[in-house]
Amino acid sequence: MDEQAVDEGVMEMAVLVAYASKHGATQEIADRIAETLAAAGQQAEARPVAAAGDLVGYGAFVIGSAVYMGHWQKEAAEFVRRNRAVLAGRPVWLFSSGPLGTEPTDAQGRDLTVAAEPREIAEFREAIAPRGHRVFFGVLDPGRLGLGERAVRKLPAGRAMLPEGDFRDWAEIEAWARGIARDPALGTGPAGSAAGAEEQQEARHGPGPGTAT
User: Fold this and answer.
1) pTM of the entire structure?
2) Domains defined along the chain, listed by start
3) What DSSP string describes 121-190?
């Protein structure tokens, strides 16, 4: 890629939505984010982190991973660490897919989207200063589980720990992506409405008081 092409790519603020998905649910979230960004006028594409290729031509990044046992998938974490120099100089948003169920809080009364934050996120905040991180609820399809996961579900408390169902809130995911699309960091300028400003706030920090999720 020549220097002119790189410069043009950065000016156009092409957005890469990179993801690591174990059973396909996180990939579907990444695809929806890329589609929502494109519908909002951004140049965006979704790719698995293993096939992301050269990052120099991208102006911004949305990076997400499935979460297991409190951690991002190894390939997603390594992608961030390996590309730290590039990511630290571009606008970056992170998302995680993991919690299951319909309850917003855990047994201790903690917000699940806060309690489920992966351990790597604190490290990434230091390393690349992302503009936001969001935890989305995930999916459990028994037909896609591995042997270990199936064994856990056979335990007395297993089905309560790993309930079957699709718990993703697509309206929340799309609103988060629209907030990114309107962020001035992508060269789109200030939001033109109160709704746009609210979406920008959600893209950075999550829903505010009274916001439906």
Assistant:
1) 0.76
2) 3-203 (3.40.50.360)
3) HHHHHHHH--SEEEEE--EE-GGG--HHHHHHHTSTTHHHHS--EE---HHHHHHHHHHHHT-GGGT--S
